[in-house]
Amino acid sequence: MIDDVVAVNVGVATFAEALREQGAPVVEVDWRPPGGGDHGALALLGRLWGEHGDLVEQANAAVVERLESSRPRAVTVLPARDALGVLREPVLLHSGPPIAWERVCDPQRRALVAACLLEGWADEGEEAQRLLATGEVALAAGNDHAHVGPMTGVCSPSMPVWVVEDREHGTRAFSTLNEGPGRTAWFGVGDDEALRRLRFLRDAVGPALHRMLERSGPVDVLDLAAQALQMGDELHMRSQAATNLLLKTLLPAVAALGGEDVARFLAANHLFFLNLTMAAAKCASLAAEGERGSTVVTLMARNGTDMGLQVAGLPGRWFTAPAAPVQDALLREGHRPGDAARDIGDSAVIECVGLGGMAVAAAPATAAFFAGTVADAVARTRLMGEICVARSRRFEIPGLDFAGTPTGIDARLVVDLAITPQITTGVLHASAGTGQIGAGVARQPVEPFRAALEALAADLDAAADGAQRAVQP
To answer: What is the pTM of this model?
Structure first.
């Protein structure tokens, strides 16, 4: 005779609640239909897990190995026009996928106008806007030219950029220098104070870093990032430890070359390493591209209007959807959710290599930005593990018994489980030009991941059909 009955509930939570109300013990299994039960999604996933599954698995393993073996080093700092051929013309780079001027969000508009003024292409804001509206100053997505920039992500010809190289894989990537806190162009501010900061970076900080790297030699960026991860950084929202490690590496050169104003700026900018992490992550992602059949996401970028991604199996092809709001955000006093711009910046390339939102368990301090606890941070990292194909050998989290961070976001798993990558990021004001008003976590839209899978499946189907016709008599 059975005295106790324990129910196991799969899926619908209301069934479990009804049983609990009657005093019955219930064990819940968190299950949902693959692809949300959508027949088209199920058919698509069936092809990529089934018919093409072996090829995809092999391609994904090769991509993750290249991500993990990449060793990007900061080799120099140069004016952008000397590093990026596209900037030898009146062109401005921006974060996110390509966009026309009339669709550019307010914070990015202000930064683009400031860049025109910095370059001397216009004497005042209205003239700069006219040049941008008519195309006399062209716009280009930085990622299409191996450049990544946080938030507004604007880069103009005279701005200094990090030059990061992975010599083994033959890739090179670039990022502007971090402008620091306050009223700055990367936060969507375009006033005189923001311009003074840009000029200081151009005239003092960039040349000083160029000389420092000449003296110190290349810096292994992801080695410093791995150390910082074990010191409480997740390398996206928080990079204090990484910045300190970089300054320690450069300290002999700083002491030898002088420059108190530059040293003071570097010491006060706790986010200075962010842009360097981004350039290294871009370099590693470029090394991972081009493996036919791979569903691993190598790029996620947002411009405050659109979010776009790319996968390793279809390098250079954008898949886009409207940018998401930053859903889990801690806003500064006096600001409301309606004040916030949509998700913006190229910095999500950091999540593509196993840092940022993949590694929040390593940075308990970031939990405050999504109103959570240390346990919540751990849970978020574990959730991200459900949509990744591997665990990093390079990035280990002490609080999880040195488990590797989730790495290699698999677009199949994103669509299958309806779990999208979480991006730890800042929040800008949508219209007032006041800069950063908070920080939080942005969950990405699922539509671009599905679109990428559809294109990838079509590519693999065409290749299979071609191979079959080739062997037919």
So the answer is: 0.92
